[in-house]
Write a structure and sequence with these properties.
Keywords: Cell membrane, Membrane, Transmembrane, Transmembrane helix, Transport. It contains 15 helices and 2 strands. It is an all-alpha fold. It is globular.
Length: about 350
């Protein structure tokens, strides 16, 4: 299959085309709603709170409501390992990438590059393109993200040791709790008390089978995640000056490294680990990692910079430009991933 045939097959795939067009058009719709003042000042933050406290936890938990097999368990373990490995690698790699910078600017660019908006920006896109399996892999991969964001990220930006509040944020926020609970049910479902349904038995915590009255409202909450996230992103873009961000050389360098460089590093590293059979990763696993890594500045990382008064203006510019850049490049990454899929390099 040549390149033109690959592109043709992608354009004929309604799921991929629909996911790309939905994300871009709904983001533009959110931008329009804010510019016309249909969405008032502060609405973006309110939508974000709903997504982070309700929709994403429901999406994360529901993604684990599926049968387990040897392959999916192996993929989950490998992605958990890679999650910790890549963040450790990026901690050292960013020191080299930004070696020309000094002081606070260097520290801030390092942290902003390591931590993207994986939860708010990445998972809704993964859900739209790769479904529940992709969300499950993303939730497992994101465990390392939470650990490093609230430990290394906080220490690097504040200059002090991690405190009890950040430890609580690391493990007790709704998304992490939903991920661990869902993962527990998924991994130990054969060992939990069973409920007979027809000629099959399921763990009593498999609410998709044993408590559909609870599972169904959670699916509605989960379904809100992507459209609300995209509307919120569009509304946020409408509130920030594009001209100032586009005139910042540092923001351009950062955006290229964050949205293009970091995902590319993951593709190369995972290809080597896959062909050497050191850490086999499936195509959906690869796609999950690439999309998570191609996300713009993490909100928490930006909040650290502003809170501790470290290059807050540059951080705001980086956040805006990387968001615009990610919106443009995410469809391109999905196309690149489909090309990789056609090459059958990953299982």
């Amino acid at each position: 299959m040549n390149f033109s045939e690959i592109i043709s097959s992608i354009l004929k795939n309604n799921s991929i085309v629909g996911a790309i067009s939905s994300s871009v058009l709904i983001i533009l719709f959110g931008f329009y709603l804010r510019k016309t003042n249909v969405l008032k000042d502060g609405t973006s933050k309110t939508l974000s709170d709903v997504i982070l406290s309700a929709s994403l936890p429901a999406l994360a938990f529901n993604s684990f409501m599926q049968d387990i097999n040897k392959n999916s368990l192996e993929q989950g373990i490998n992605l958990l390992i890679w999650g910790f490995a890549i963040y450790i690698l990026l901690i050292f790699l960013t020191k080299v990438l930004y070696i020309q910078y000094k002081g606070d600017k260097k520290s801030v660019l390092e942290v902003l590059t390591i931590f993207g908006s994986t939860t708010f920006f990445g998972i809704p896109i993964i859900a739209a393109v790769y479904g529940e399996v992709g969300v499950m892999y993303a939730s497992i991969f994101n465990i390392a993200y939470r650990v490093f964001l609230y430990s290394y990220g906080y220490i690097k930006m504040s200059g002090i040791k991690v405190d009890r509040k950040n430890v609580s944020q690391m493990f007790l926020n709704p998304i992490v709790l939903a991920t661990f609970l869902g993962m527990f049910v998924w991994v130990f479902q054969s060992s939990l008390p069973q409920v007979s349904i027809g000629d099959k038995s399921y763990a009593f915590l498999r609410i998709d089978k044993t408590a559909f009255w609870l599972f169904k409202p959670m699916t509605y909450l989960a379904a809100l995640c992507s459209p609300l996230a995209w509307i919120s992103i569009g509304a946020k873009l409408a509130d920030i000056s594009l001209k100032e961000a586009f005139s910042s050389k540092d923001s351009w360098i950062y955006s290229f490294v964050k949205v293009l460089g970091v995902p590319a590093i993951n593709i190369v590293a995972l290809y080597i680990l896959n062909v050497t059979n050191i850490l086999p990763i499936s195509f959906v696993g690869l796609a999950t990692v690439v999309i998570m890594m191609a996300t713009p500045t993490a909100t928490v990382a930006a909040a650290y910079a502003i809170k501790f008064d470290k290059e807050s203006l540059m951080t705001s510019n980086c956040s805006l430009l990387s968001t615009v850049f990610s919106v443009i490049c995410m469809p391109l990454w999905i196309v690149v991933l489909e090309v990789i899929k056609s090459l059958q390099i990953f299982g």
